[in-house]
Amino acid sequence: MGGGENALVNSMNGKELTASFWKGVKTARELKMLSSGWNPSTKQKARIRKVVVLCDAEYKRYMDGELDQPKIFLAEDKERLRYDTRRHAWNCLLIVGESSKDGILAGYLPKSDSLFLTYVPEHRELELPEGIPVAMEMGAASTNLQPALLGTADAAAHYSSFVGLELISMASSLHFAAYDPAANIFTVLEQGGPNDYMQYQGTPEEIAQAFHFSGKLKEAFFDLRYRNISHGSHLVKERQKRTYPKERSGDGR
Questions:
Q1: What is d(CA 252, CA 248) in angstroms, rounded to the nearest whole number?
Q2: Which residues pair with 242 in a beta bridge?
Q3: Using CA atoms, how far apart are residues 134 and 185, in angstroms rounded to an integer?
Q4: What is the dihedral of CA 186, 189, 190, 192, to 10 degrees?
Q5: H-type alpha helices, 52-125
Q6: Could you point out which of 63, 143, 188, 252 has its C-alpha 20 to 30 Å from the C-alpha of 96?
Q7: What strand order describes the sheet that includes 173-180?
Q8: Strand, helix or coil for residue 189
Q9: pTM score, whole prediction
Q10: Contact (CB, 8 A) for 20 and 9
Protein backbone atom coordinates (compact mmCIF):
# COMPACT_ATOMS: atom_id res chain seq x y z
CA MET A 1 0.00 0.00 0.00
CA GLY A 2 1.20 3.54 -0.58
CA GLY A 3 0.16 7.17 -0.34
CA GLY A 4 1.20 10.81 -0.34
CA GLU A 5 2.86 12.29 2.73
CA ASN A 6 -0.01 14.70 3.32
CA ALA A 7 -2.70 12.34 2.09
CA LEU A 8 -3.72 11.29 5.59
CA VAL A 9 -4.42 14.80 6.77
CA ASN A 10 -5.93 15.99 3.50
CA SER A 11 -8.25 13.00 3.29
CA MET A 12 -10.28 13.94 6.35
CA ASN A 13 -13.91 14.51 5.41
CA GLY A 14 -15.80 15.69 8.45
CA LYS A 15 -14.79 13.16 11.09
CA GLU A 16 -13.80 10.42 8.63
CA LEU A 17 -10.10 9.76 8.34
CA THR A 18 -8.46 7.79 5.54
CA ALA A 19 -4.83 6.70 5.31
CA SER A 20 -2.46 4.28 3.62
CA PHE A 21 -0.73 1.67 5.80
CA TRP A 22 2.44 -0.34 5.25
CA LYS A 23 3.64 -3.65 6.65
CA GLY A 24 7.24 -4.52 7.46
CA VAL A 25 8.57 -0.94 7.59
CA LYS A 26 11.75 -0.92 9.68
CA THR A 27 12.71 2.76 9.90
CA ALA A 28 11.02 6.13 10.10
CA ARG A 29 12.99 7.23 7.05
CA GLU A 30 11.53 4.37 5.02
CA LEU A 31 8.04 5.15 6.29
CA LYS A 32 8.42 8.82 5.34
CA MET A 33 9.63 7.85 1.87
CA LEU A 34 6.62 5.59 1.39
CA SER A 35 4.47 8.50 2.51
CA SER A 36 6.05 10.91 0.02
CA GLY A 37 3.80 9.91 -2.87
CA TRP A 38 6.32 7.80 -4.77
CA ASN A 39 4.04 4.77 -4.60
CA PRO A 40 0.44 4.22 -5.72
CA SER A 41 -2.06 5.11 -3.02
CA THR A 42 -4.61 2.73 -1.52
CA LYS A 43 -6.36 4.63 1.23
CA GLN A 44 -8.55 2.99 3.83
CA LYS A 45 -10.71 4.26 6.65
CA ALA A 46 -8.93 4.72 9.98
CA ARG A 47 -10.20 5.41 13.50
CA ILE A 48 -7.87 6.58 16.25
CA ARG A 49 -8.69 4.59 19.39
CA LYS A 50 -5.92 5.77 21.73
CA VAL A 51 -2.97 8.15 21.88
CA VAL A 52 0.39 7.38 23.47
CA VAL A 53 2.59 10.36 24.31
CA LEU A 54 6.31 9.61 24.75
CA CYS A 55 8.83 12.01 26.24
CA ASP A 56 10.82 13.72 23.51
CA ALA A 57 13.99 11.70 24.18
CA GLU A 58 12.10 8.38 24.05
CA TYR A 59 10.18 9.45 20.95
CA LYS A 60 13.48 10.25 19.22
CA ARG A 61 14.82 6.80 20.16
CA TYR A 62 11.63 5.24 18.79
CA MET A 63 11.86 7.17 15.50
CA ASP A 64 15.59 6.45 15.17
CA GLY A 65 15.18 2.75 15.98
CA GLU A 66 13.55 -0.23 14.29
CA LEU A 67 9.83 0.43 14.05
CA ASP A 68 8.95 -3.22 13.49
CA GLN A 69 10.39 -4.37 16.82
CA PRO A 70 7.99 -5.12 19.73
CA LYS A 71 7.06 -2.12 21.87
CA ILE A 72 5.44 -2.27 25.32
CA PHE A 73 2.97 0.49 24.54
CA LEU A 74 1.82 -1.42 21.44
CA ALA A 75 1.52 -4.82 23.12
CA GLU A 76 -0.79 -3.46 25.82
CA ASP A 77 -3.47 -2.47 23.30
CA LYS A 78 -2.91 -4.93 20.50
CA GLU A 79 -6.37 -6.50 20.64
CA ARG A 80 -8.04 -3.08 20.35
CA LEU A 81 -5.85 -2.13 17.38
CA ARG A 82 -7.15 -4.68 14.88
CA TYR A 83 -8.42 -4.01 11.38
CA ASP A 84 -12.22 -4.13 11.43
CA THR A 85 -13.14 -6.46 8.57
CA ARG A 86 -16.85 -5.70 8.92
CA ARG A 87 -16.48 -1.93 8.70
CA HIS A 88 -13.35 -2.05 6.54
CA ALA A 89 -11.50 0.35 8.84
CA TRP A 90 -8.26 0.41 10.80
CA ASN A 91 -8.41 0.80 14.58
CA CYS A 92 -5.26 2.77 15.31
CA LEU A 93 -2.92 3.90 18.04
CA LEU A 94 -1.46 7.38 17.51
CA ILE A 95 2.13 7.66 18.79
CA VAL A 96 3.57 11.15 19.32
CA GLY A 97 6.26 12.92 21.31
CA GLU A 98 5.59 15.57 23.94
CA SER A 99 6.48 18.39 21.56
CA SER A 100 6.66 16.58 18.21
CA LYS A 101 4.73 17.84 15.22
CA ASP A 102 4.66 14.45 13.54
CA GLY A 103 3.49 11.06 14.69
CA ILE A 104 2.78 7.49 13.63
CA LEU A 105 -0.47 5.55 13.38
CA ALA A 106 -0.18 1.84 14.16
CA GLY A 107 -2.58 -1.08 13.76
CA TYR A 108 -2.73 -4.87 13.30
CA LEU A 109 -4.60 -7.28 11.07
CA PRO A 110 -7.00 -9.70 12.82
CA LYS A 111 -5.28 -12.74 14.37
CA SER A 112 -1.87 -11.46 13.32
CA ASP A 113 1.20 -9.90 14.93
CA SER A 114 2.09 -8.08 11.72
CA LEU A 115 2.29 -4.35 12.44
CA PHE A 116 0.98 -1.84 9.91
CA LEU A 117 2.09 1.80 10.10
CA THR A 118 1.51 5.16 8.50
CA TYR A 119 3.36 8.45 8.98
CA VAL A 120 1.53 11.58 10.16
CA PRO A 121 3.52 14.73 9.26
CA GLU A 122 1.33 17.05 11.40
CA HIS A 123 -0.67 15.30 14.11
CA ARG A 124 -2.29 18.54 15.30
CA GLU A 125 -4.32 18.62 12.09
CA LEU A 126 -6.04 15.39 13.12
CA GLU A 127 -9.47 15.65 14.72
CA LEU A 128 -9.26 13.38 17.76
CA PRO A 129 -12.47 11.76 19.02
CA GLU A 130 -13.86 13.38 22.16
CA GLY A 131 -12.81 11.50 25.29
CA ILE A 132 -10.15 9.44 23.53
CA PRO A 133 -7.77 7.70 26.00
CA VAL A 134 -4.40 9.47 26.18
CA ALA A 135 -1.53 7.71 27.98
CA MET A 136 1.67 9.42 29.09
CA GLU A 137 4.52 6.91 28.73
CA MET A 138 8.30 6.79 29.17
CA GLY A 139 8.55 9.93 31.29
CA ALA A 140 6.14 12.11 29.29
CA ALA A 141 4.39 14.75 31.41
CA SER A 142 2.71 17.10 28.92
CA THR A 143 1.51 17.10 25.33
CA ASN A 144 1.00 19.44 22.40
CA LEU A 145 -1.97 17.49 21.05
CA GLN A 146 -4.51 20.00 19.75
CA PRO A 147 -7.22 19.45 22.44
CA ALA A 148 -4.67 20.35 25.12
CA LEU A 149 -3.97 23.73 23.53
CA LEU A 150 -7.48 25.03 22.89
CA GLY A 151 -8.31 26.48 26.30
CA THR A 152 -8.59 30.07 27.45
CA ALA A 153 -6.86 31.36 30.57
CA ASP A 154 -9.14 29.80 33.20
CA ALA A 155 -7.48 28.60 36.40
CA ALA A 156 -10.37 26.42 37.61
CA ALA A 157 -10.81 24.67 34.24
CA HIS A 158 -7.05 24.31 33.82
CA TYR A 159 -6.24 22.75 37.19
CA SER A 160 -9.42 20.65 37.26
CA SER A 161 -8.32 19.06 33.98
CA PHE A 162 -5.36 17.45 35.78
CA VAL A 163 -7.63 15.23 37.90
CA GLY A 164 -7.09 11.67 36.71
CA LEU A 165 -3.56 12.27 35.42
CA GLU A 166 -0.89 9.73 36.38
CA LEU A 167 2.76 10.77 36.12
CA ILE A 168 5.09 7.78 36.11
CA SER A 169 8.75 7.81 37.13
CA MET A 170 11.25 5.03 37.82
CA ALA A 171 10.64 5.15 41.58
CA SER A 172 6.96 6.06 41.92
CA SER A 173 3.78 7.35 40.31
CA LEU A 174 1.95 10.57 41.11
CA HIS A 175 -1.84 10.50 40.77
CA PHE A 176 -3.92 13.70 40.68
CA ALA A 177 -6.95 12.59 42.71
CA ALA A 178 -8.96 15.80 43.19
CA TYR A 179 -8.94 19.57 42.86
CA ASP A 180 -11.02 22.04 44.89
CA PRO A 181 -11.26 25.26 42.83
CA ALA A 182 -12.79 27.25 45.71
CA ALA A 183 -9.82 26.52 47.98
CA ASN A 184 -7.31 26.11 45.11
CA ILE A 185 -6.18 22.81 46.65
CA PHE A 186 -5.04 19.61 44.95
CA THR A 187 -5.21 16.14 46.46
CA VAL A 188 -2.54 13.89 44.99
CA LEU A 189 -1.43 10.33 45.70
CA GLU A 190 2.21 9.29 45.52
CA GLN A 191 2.39 5.55 44.82
CA GLY A 192 5.55 3.52 45.38
CA GLY A 193 3.99 0.06 45.01
CA PRO A 194 0.64 -1.68 44.49
CA ASN A 195 -0.46 -0.91 48.08
CA ASP A 196 2.14 1.68 49.00
CA TYR A 197 0.94 5.24 48.60
CA MET A 198 0.72 8.54 50.47
CA GLN A 199 -1.91 11.26 50.17
CA TYR A 200 -0.77 14.86 49.92
CA GLN A 201 -2.69 18.14 49.68
CA GLY A 202 -1.52 21.58 48.62
CA THR A 203 -1.91 24.49 46.26
CA PRO A 204 -0.60 24.09 42.71
CA GLU A 205 2.55 25.97 43.73
CA GLU A 206 3.08 23.70 46.74
CA ILE A 207 2.50 20.55 44.70
CA ALA A 208 4.93 21.70 42.01
CA GLN A 209 7.61 22.52 44.60
CA ALA A 210 7.11 19.38 46.68
CA PHE A 211 7.33 17.05 43.69
CA HIS A 212 10.05 19.00 41.87
CA PHE A 213 8.16 19.88 38.69
CA SER A 214 10.47 21.20 35.99
CA GLY A 215 10.79 21.60 32.25
CA LYS A 216 7.75 20.90 30.07
CA LEU A 217 5.69 19.68 33.02
CA LYS A 218 6.18 22.87 35.02
CA GLU A 219 5.49 25.01 31.95
CA ALA A 220 2.23 23.18 31.19
CA PHE A 221 1.17 23.03 34.85
CA PHE A 222 1.22 26.81 35.19
CA ASP A 223 -0.05 27.68 31.69
CA LEU A 224 -3.71 28.44 32.44
CA ARG A 225 -4.59 27.93 28.75
CA TYR A 226 -3.39 24.32 28.84
CA ARG A 227 -5.82 21.43 29.39
CA ASN A 228 -4.59 18.03 30.45
CA ILE A 229 -6.27 15.30 28.38
CA SER A 230 -4.69 12.23 29.99
CA HIS A 231 -6.92 10.67 32.65
CA GLY A 232 -5.71 7.08 32.95
CA SER A 233 -5.06 6.86 36.71
CA HIS A 234 -6.51 3.61 38.07
CA LEU A 235 -6.25 4.93 41.63
CA VAL A 236 -8.45 7.90 40.84
CA LYS A 237 -11.01 5.65 39.19
CA GLU A 238 -11.11 3.49 42.32
CA ARG A 239 -10.96 6.43 44.71
CA GLN A 240 -14.45 6.05 46.09
CA LYS A 241 -13.76 2.42 47.04
CA ARG A 242 -10.46 2.96 48.81
CA THR A 243 -9.41 4.26 52.25
CA TYR A 244 -6.32 6.42 52.05
CA PRO A 245 -3.65 6.82 54.71
CA LYS A 246 -2.89 9.92 56.75
CA GLU A 247 -2.61 13.18 54.84
CA ARG A 248 0.40 15.42 54.68
CA SER A 249 -0.18 19.16 54.69
CA GLY A 250 1.02 21.48 51.94
CA ASP A 251 4.04 22.79 53.83
CA GLY A 252 6.54 20.33 52.33
CA ARG A 253 7.29 16.64 52.04
A1: 8
A2: none
A3: 25
A4: -170
A5: 56-64, 72-75
A6: 188
A7: 166-168, 173-180, 185-193, 196-202, 247-248
A8: strand
A9: 0.82
A10: no
